Amino acid sequence: xxxxxxxxxxxxxxxxxxxxxxxxxxxxxxxxxxxxxxxxxxxxxxxxxxxxxxxxxxxxxxxxxxxxxxxxxxxxxxxxxxxxxxxxxxxxxxxxxxxxxxxxxxxxxxxxxxxxxxxxxxxxxxxxxxxxxxxxxxxxxxxxxxxxxxxxxxxxxxxxxxxxxxxxxxxxxxxxxxxxxxxxxxxxxxxxxxxxxxxxxxxxxxxxxxxxxxxxxxxxxxxxxxxxxxxxxxxxxxxxxxxxxxxxxxxxxxxxxxxxxxxxxxxxxxxxxxxxxxxxxxxxxxxxxxxxxxxxxxxxxxxxxxxxxxxxxxxxxxxxxxxxxxxxxxxxxxxxxxxxxxxxxxxxxxxxxxxxxxxxxxxxxxxxxxxxxxxxxxxxxxxxxxxxxxxxxxxxxxxxxxxxxxxxxxxxxxxxxxxxxxxxxxxxxxxxxxxx
Length: 436
Ligand code: ACO
Prior knowledge:
Structural class: mainly alpha
Oligomer: single chain
Number of strands: 6
Number of helices: 18
Bound molecules: acetyl coenzyme *A
Distance between the termini: 55 Å
Strand content: 5-15%
C-alpha cells in the first residue's frame, strides 16, 4: 500500500496552508480542504466532482484500476454466488451479514409492507399509458410522503427503520404497477409466500385469469442482477439522494430524486440505450462497423453505450459477472439472442481499438444487463426501473449513513461567477433586440 504524507501544503499568495490528509481503510487519500475558503478566500473548482470526495463512507469500496467492488468489505463475486438480495440489503443497511434470526425478522418486516395503500394504487390510472415508468415510479415514491407523515423524521431511528422496510417492500409493487398500467392489465396483489425476486416476477407477469409459475432460474438471475446493482458508492443518483437528504428532506423525497437522477442515459438509463443501440446495429447487418466509426469520429450524441466509467479504468467486475450470467441464463432457458453476438463482437472490436484502449474504456454494468432483462421478459423501458430496484438499498444505506454522520452539513457547492458585472436596469422601451 502506498504511504501517504499526513498533510499537504498549499501555497496561495503569501500564505502557506497545511491541509490534513485523511487516509481510508484501503489507503485512498483525501486532502481535507475544509479550511481553504476561510484561510484564503478561494474555493476549489472541480467540474463533475472528478477529484472531489463528498464524504467518508464505510459502505462500498471500489478500486477502479483493479476492477474491485466490495460491499462492507465482501467481494461482489462472493455475494453474487452465495447471498440473496434481501441479505445484501441487510448487509448494506446494518453493516454486517445477518444471523438467521436477524434475516428472518428483516424478511418478515419487509413482507408485512408489500401492499400499497388502495389510494396509492389509484395514482397509476391518472398517468398516460405511455408515461415512462421511471417518471411514474419517482412520482409514486415521492407521494408516499403524503401517506406516512408519522414516520418521516430523518433523525428518528425507529421512523427510519419503518420507512426503510416500507420502501424496500413496496418498490417492486410500484415498479410492476407502472408496467401493468402501461399495458392495461389489472394489478396483482403481492404474494408474501414468495421471496423478493419471485414476488416481483409474479407482480409483473401474473394475471388473475391464468396460473403463473415463477421460473426459479429467472428468479435466481433476477436476484443476482439486483445484488450487482445494490450500491456503487457516490455515483450520480446516490449523491443526489445524499444531497437532497442533507437538507433534512424525508427518505421518500430523497429517493424520488435519486430515481430521477438515475433515469439519465449517462447513468442508469444507459441499460435501455445499450439494447436499442445493439438492435440498430443488428438491423444494419454490418457488425457495428459504421456505428463504431461514428463513435470514434465523435459524432454528436453518439457514444458506445455501456462502455466507459468515471471510476473503472479497467473491466467493471459487474460486467464480467453479467456477461457469464447472460450465457448461463440463455442456456438454461434454452433461448438465444442475436444481440448477445453483436455485443460480444462490439466488445472484441473495442478492446483492441486504440480509441477505447487509450481512454481506458471497458464494458460497464449496463453493457450486458439489458440482455438478461430481455431474456427474463422485462420490456426495454423498464430496464432502468430494474436498476432502481437494485440500487434502492444502497441509496437508503448511504442516506442513513449521512444522517448518522456528525460531519454532515447541508450540501451546498459554491461557484465562480462568470456573468455580467454590475449594470443598470434598462426600461422596456429602451431595450434593443438580442443578437444571437
Ligand atoms: N463511447 C465513446 N467515447 C467515450 C465513451 C463511450 N461510451 N465514454 C467516454 N468516452 C470518451 C470521451 O469522449 C472522452 O474522450 P476525450 O478525452 O478524447 O474527450 C473520454 O472518453 C473520457 O470521457 P468522459 O465523458 O470525460 O468521462 P466521464 O468519467 O465524465 O464519463 C461516462 C463517464 C458518463 C460513464 C461515459 O463513459 C459515458 O458516457 N459512457 C456511456 C454511457 C454509459 O454507459 N453510462 C453508464 C455508466 S455506468 C452507470 O452509471 C451505472
